[in-house]
Fold this protein.
Amino acid sequence: MNLRIIRKKIKSIANVKKITRAMQLVSAVKMKKAQQEAIEGIPYRSFLNKIILKASSLVDKTYSPLLFSHTNNGKFLFIVISSNKGLCGFFNFSIFKFITKEVNLKTSDFLVLGKKGASFINKIGGKIIADFSHINFNNAVSPIFTEAVNKFLIGEYEKVYLIYNHFINAVKFETIKTQLLPTKLETQTLNEENIKNKKEYLIEPDPKKVIEEVLKNLVEEKIRGAIIESQASEHSARMMAMKNATDNAGEIIYNLTLLRNKVRQERITNELLDMVSAKISVES
C-alpha cells in the first residue's frame, strides 16, 4: 500500500476518533441529567399512589373510569417510545425485537414517540394512530396522555400499554411492557394501625373528586417517567456505542501506524539496495 494513502487514512480515522470521543462525553453528561430526573420522579409517583390507597376505602371500587376497562373487544393500544436519532447501539433494536415477539399486530394499534420506532412499525405493517416524534419529547407527555385516555374512555381499546427501555444503570437497560390503563395500584397490607390511621383522614371536597384528579396525575407521571427513563437509556447506549467506536478507531490507527512504519522501512531498504547496486555496477 502506498505510504501517502496510509498517512491519509490515519489522519481521517484520527478525526473520526475525535468526533466519537466528543459524542461519548456529551452522551455521558446527558445520561446523568436524565438519570437524575428519573430518580427524582420516583418519590412523587409513589406519593400519588399512597394518597389513592389511603382514600380508596372511603369510596366504591368503581370510583374512577381509569381503573376498569370499558370494553372487551380485545384491542390494545401500545405507546412505543424509541429515539429520533441513531448511533445508539442496540437501543432501538431491543424495542423492535420486543415488539416482534410480544405484540400481535392484528389486535394492536400504536401511538409512537420516536422516528425510529415509527419507521419500524410502518415497515412491519402496524397501524399508527398518532405520531408525536416531531415535537420535543418533554412536551409530548400531555398530548400522549390526552390521546391515550380519550381512546380508552370511549371504549376503543380494552387496555393501554407502554413499551420503552427501562434504565437500570449507566451500562444496562431493559425493554419492558407496563400496563398504563386501566391503572393498576400498588397494593399494601392493612394492619390494625393502618386501619386506625385511615379513619382519621378527612378528604375535601370528597374522596371521589380528589382521587380522580390524583389518578390522572399518576397516569401522566407514568408516561413522563417512561420518557425520561427511555432518554437516559438512549444516552447510555449512545455513550457505550461511541466508546466502542473510539476504542476501535484507536486500534485501527495503531495497526495502520505499524503498517506505515513497515512500508517506510521497506522503501528505505529498497533505496539502499538500489544505491549499493548502482555503486557495484560503476565499480565493476
Observations:
- The chain is about 60% helix and 15% strand.
